[in-house]
Amino acid sequence: MNIQFIQAISMEGIDVECVYPIGLVTLASIIKRETKHQLSLFDMNIADDPYGQLKEILSNASTDLICISLRNIDPLGNKTSSLIPAFAVTLAFIKKLCPETKIMAGGTGFTLFARQLMEEYPEIDFGIIGEAENNIIPLLDNLENPPDLAGICYRKAGQIIINPPIGDFDMQNYQMPDRNLLDPKAYLERNHYVECIGVESKRGCNLTCGYCAYPDLSGSKLRCRNPIDIVDEIEYLKKNYGISQIHFTDSVVNTPVDHFNAVCQELIKRDLNISWSGFFRENLLTEENVHLYADSGCQCFSLSPDGLTQNSLDQLNKHMKVDDILNAARILAKCGVVTVYHFLVNTPGATCQTVDEAKKLIDQLFSIHEFSKTLGTIVLNNIRILPGTAIEKQALDNKVIDEHTDLLYPTYYNPQPYDKLRYELEIYHQKKNIFTWQEVPQ
Ligand code: B12
Question: Among 210, 403, 415, 430, which one is least packed by beta carbons within 10 Å?
Answer without folding.
Answer: 403
